[in-house]
Amino acid sequence: MAKKVGVLLSGCGVYDGTEIHEAVLTLLFLDRASVEIICTAPNEEQYDVINHFMGKQADEKRNVLIESARISRGKIKDLKDLKASDLDAIIIPGGMGAVKNLSNFMNEGADAKVHPEVKRILIEMNRASKPIGAICISPAVIAKVFCDNKPEVTIGNEKNTAQTIESMGAIHKTCTVDMICVDNKNKIVTTPAYMLGPSIKDVAVGIEKLVAKILEFLV
Questions:
Q1: Interstrand relation of 89-92 and 132-135 (parallel, antiparallel or unpaired)
Q2: E-assigned strand segments in the chain
Q3: Which residue in 23, 53, 171, 189 is deepest, having the highest Cβ count within 10 Å?
């Protein structure tokens, strides 16, 4: 029976949702491994909407689940309907949606709160000893949820963000874009991706390694 891996999305677009390259690469490497992919997102209004052509905030509203469905080609589950028992692992691509929609880390930093459904599924996964992957800026969410577990994570080498993550109780490991940080105790795997970039071919290396390590935990 194929393993089931959740991909937790936060919208569609790097500045207000999921970073699309990171999401698609994650989906590609999972599909190549012949796992069953279950895309999911919270069903709520986005924090904001950014016009990605102009690079400016747009005067409109969008829904995180509906926008995430653009990436998953319509096949997606409302996060509130998903349980850890439905999955063998879960991966969170990056993009500003991770720190705007899945949490408010962008505005609140170390005092951030994580979306209750995001927090719930991550805690359920951890308690079931199921692996969690986080890409780009999304390890900030992991750091907040599991602050008492002192998780080892990476967002690359951005000093201020790394210091904020450590102030929440996590241990930050400096990594290059082609590296992964593996916390064997908590079964958490992270990679910097577009926190460092600079291009899709570069971020692909770390994301492929992350997916491979997540699946290795399932053997």
A1: parallel
A2: 4-8, 36-41, 50-51, 56-57, 77-78, 89-92, 132-135, 152-156, 171-174, 181-183, 188-191
A3: 189
Q: From residue 210, give the alpha-carbon distance in Å to each of 21, 69, 86, 163, 188.
A: 15, 23, 21, 23, 10
Taking only Cα atoms into account, the Rg of the chain, rounded to an integer number of angstroms, comes to 15
Q: At residue 1, does pLDDT exceed 90?
A: no
Quick check: 57 and 50 in contact, CB under 8 A?
yes
Give percent above pLDDT 90 in the chain.
Answer: 100
Name the active-site residue from 39, 136, 175, 181: 136
125 membership: H or E segment, kind and range: helix 116-127
Please tell me the distance from the alpha carbon of residue 23 to that of residue 42, in angstroms, as a whole number. Answer: 16
Handedness of CA 165, 210, 133, 13 (dihedral sign): positive
- Is there a catalytic annotation at residue 181? no
How high is the mean pLDDT of the chain? 98
Return the structure tokens found at 18: 């999921």
Give the whole-angstrom CA distance, residue 190 versus residue 139: 7
One-letter amino acid for residue 131 of the chain:
P
The Cα–Cα gap between 50 and 16 comes to 6
Taking the C-alpha atoms of residue 155 and residue 65, their distance in angstroms, rounded to an integer, is 25
Decide if pLDDT at 38 tops 90.
Answer: yes
Q: What are phi and psi of 89, to 5 degrees?
A: -160, 165
Cβ-based neighbours of 39, under 8 Å, separated by 6 or more: 6, 7, 9, 27, 68, 71, 72, 75, 76, 77
Quick check: pTM over 0.90?
A: yes
